[in-house]
Amino acid sequence: MAINIKNNIEQEKMRTAGHLASEILTMIGEHIKPGVPTKQLDKICHDYIVNIQNTIPANLGYKGFPATICTSVNHVVCHGIPNEKTLKHGDIINIDVTVIKDGFHGDTSRMYLVGKTTKQGERIAEVAYECLCNGIRVVKPGNRLGDIGHAIQNHAEKNYFSVVKEYCGHGIGEIYHDEPQILHYGTPGTGIELKEGMTFTIEPMINSGKAAVRLLSDEWTVVTKDHSLSAQWEHTILVTNNGYEVLTLAPNETI
Ligand code: MF3
Ligand code: CO
Ligand code: CO
Fold this sequence. Notes:
By secondary structure, the protein is of the alpha+beta class.
């Protein structure tokens, strides 16, 4: 199947959606502290999206997902469901949000350190971020998907962390999870060739222990099998004529 190439008008809509998604993650930052239930973070994001941004929360009801954001704490790898449990000092949490604006999706996630931090928490959040950046930096026309996967895997394993294999990044646009799949591991020079106008996410999940994961009985929450810490960051990327544009950059963020 052919991969959808965005024209200039579509690229501009992706830019807008990406910017709005990033804004939510910046807004929620000050609310993340010990004692706060993740459900409260979900409500704040939902109200901001619907009442202030006038955008559509893409996760809510997606394949039956019951919330606006995914809240993945400590050994939760991804797709954590917001609940009544409160955050505590030293927790690490990923918040993942997607909005739809004018028919186009913006998808991004960040790690947050809660209260008094731990060395292990700081370290895995930092290495996972470096993995994302290294993956992004090899994006340009003519390079291949395997180059992205390799850059991520190489950095994770060099730091004695492991890469989750079961979940991946994805093409994105009018369709939330489109082709191609963006694997976070791979071999340089292999896979589909990148072309100007492609838009996709890169969203590596990095574990401090083994790579294996387990799906909980709620059919959403993914955890590390060995209960080791896991961290993830996600950006939506546009392939430009000579490199990349990060559509979900945070204020003051440079890749
Ligand atoms: N935002 C996630 C991703 O990065 C997908 C979440 S789907 C949900 O692709 F249903 F769990 F919200
Ligand atoms: Co995504
Ligand atoms: Co996401």
